[in-house]
TrEMBL record:
CDD domains: Fur_like (cd07153). Transmembrane segments: none annotated. Zn(2+) binds at residues 108, 111, 148, 151. One of its GO terms (biological process) is negative regulation of DNA-templated transcription. GO terms for molecular function: DNA-binding transcription factor activity; transcription cis-regulatory region binding; zinc ion binding. Binds 1 Mn(2+) or Fe(2+) ion per subunit. Binds 1 zinc ion per subunit. It comes from Biomaibacter acetigenes. Its cofactor is Mn(2+); Fe(2+); Zn(2+). Belongs to the Fur family. It comes from the Bacteria. Fe cation binds at residue 140. This is Transcriptional repressor. InterPro entries: FUR, Fur_C, WH-like_DNA-bd_sf, WH_DNA-bd_sf.
């Protein structure tokens, strides 16, 4: 994706999020916008609250950690972001996606690296669950624990 296309996509997402907030009678304040920008600029990094705070603080030195916590909670409440628990003692965040299911995560248990993959092979299983249990599945969360390519090399030795 070219730089102009990336900027257009970023602007489109910001506009959608701003409309979602307005629909809930909330504003996209400068601090919320800075938090959103950090999330958009670091989409593949699964940042923690403290990491987001550090990056927002570069733009807004007076911002408090409590403001970031409240902003992330608001974004989570309005399904703008997903709060993720990778078992490392802190929540991490990523922007919600427009599609039905989120991507899945591969988590290295040695270095903590998080990789994403998009194959959604659980549709058939979801259908069986729905039919066999009279249960409507709306989403699922899958995380695989193992060793990344780099850690496999040291693990195998």
């Amino acid at each position: 994706m070219e730089l102009a296309e990336k900027q257009d996509e970023k602007n489109r997402r910001i506009k959608l999020i701003e409309e979602k907030l307005k629909g809930k009678e909330c504003k996209l304040t400068p601090q919320r916008r800075a938090t959103l920008d950090v999330l958009l600029e670091n989409q593949s990094k699964h940042l923690s609250t403290e990491e987001i705070y550090g990056l927002v603080k570069e733009k807004f030195p007076d911002v408090g950690l409590a403001t970031i916590y409240r902003t992330l909670q608001l974004f989570d409440d309005f399904d703008i972001i997903k709060k993720l628990n990778f078992g490392d003692g802190c929540y991490r965040y990523e922007l919600s996606e427009d599609q039905k299911h989120q991507h899945h995560h591969l988590i290295c248990i040695k270095c903590g690296k998080v990789l994403e993959f998009d194959d959604d092979f659980l549709d058939e299983l979801e259908q069986k669950i729905e039919i066999g249990n009279d249960f409507k599945v709306v989403d699922h969360v899958v995380k695989f624990l193992g060793y990344c390519k780099e850690c496999q090399q040291t693990y195998d030795k």
